[in-house]
Amino acid sequence: MYRFPLLLLITIIISFDGLAQDLNHAKKTINTLASKKYWGRGYTKNGMAKAADFIEKEFKKFGLTAVNGTDFKQEFTFAVNTFPGKMKVKLNGVTLKPGRDFIVHQASKGATTTDSLIKKDSITYLSKNGNIALSIQPKLTWSVAQKELDYTVIEVSKTAVLTEPVVIDVAIENKIETTFTAANVVGMIKGTVKPDSILMFTAHYDHLGSMGNKTYFPGANDNASGVAILLDLVKYYATNPPKYSIVFIAFAAEEAGLLGSKYFTQNPLVPLKNIRFLWNLDLMGNGDAGATVVNAMIHPQEFALLNKINGEKKYLLKINPRGKAANSDHYFFTEKGVPAFFLYTQGGSPAYHDVDDIAKNLPLTAYENLFKLFVGFNQRIIN
Fold first, then answer.
1. CATH 3.40.630.10 residue ranges for the chain
2. Alpha carbon of 106 to those of 38, 154, 338: distances in Å?
3. Per-residue pLDDT tens digits for 252-279
4. Which CATH architecture has domain 24-81+178-382?
5. Are 227 and 55 in contact (CB under 8 A)?
6. Which pLDDT value is given to residue 9?
């Protein structure tokens, strides 16, 4: 039997243990943020505020400093439609499960009624009194709304429609929060040589919250996974401070319309002109099919550098280029002239904005390699 030299064996063990620790830390973060305690990191049961407190505690634990010197949180307010109470629907006398058999459209008004249904087309039915619309859908995908309609829209999974819909029973409560308070969580590591030059990592920590008092949307991939890699980057740079300053932002209210990042760019805590490059991290939980980079086509030089690093190290199967898109928190920075990429992984679980986006469904296939890719890219930018 071949025996490794002791020093080499110890080195290999330490190396693999270090990687395992990062992945274990990621899994722990995702499990925590996607748990029932945080209630979908949304607008009821204090879910979003609890998540902000958790992230602030992590920032402090790793030694980040507040950008303004005193407070890690940047608060702002907005209106949002919430569903804190009853969430019951019966179709032809059969009780449907919220989140799995049906969702209520995010802008819907609450309703308590029993009514007959009138068929309008192959997937749409209206209640006789006109205040309920029912739509049959192949997949249930939820979101967040800032306003309230004057009627109720219920989307039902086609797998739950066993017979022609004739009668509907509804008991749904909604509440418009006109001044909901949320907070971006912001921390920094000061650069050792050029502290006024900034690299930035961002990830939104909010998700959809709950639909009723019994159903919440865990949001493991979207975007507990992004927060996980953000915190691992915090941990890394805290012990390996670079020449440039690095600012980390966990944004609130992305799902309500990129509100946290919009507020930050309108009320920046650092000069936007000092940001050399920004990485927005969203949907980090997969990666067996590679990743896509938004803004690749408007920053071809940086995208070429990214592909060069990936080609050298074989971190990802492929990196697909995409143009400008207003689909995550990089967007308002792009509009202000800040060079930014939004990277999201592909493959793995198809769960998205639904109750199946849970921690155990995430393979984290490319997680460790993504971490190395970000660190490697930043190093090239700094040098």
1. 24-81+178-382
2. 20, 10, 32
3. 999 999 999 999 999 999 999 999 999 9
4. 3-Layer(aba) Sandwich (3.40)
5. yes
6. 34
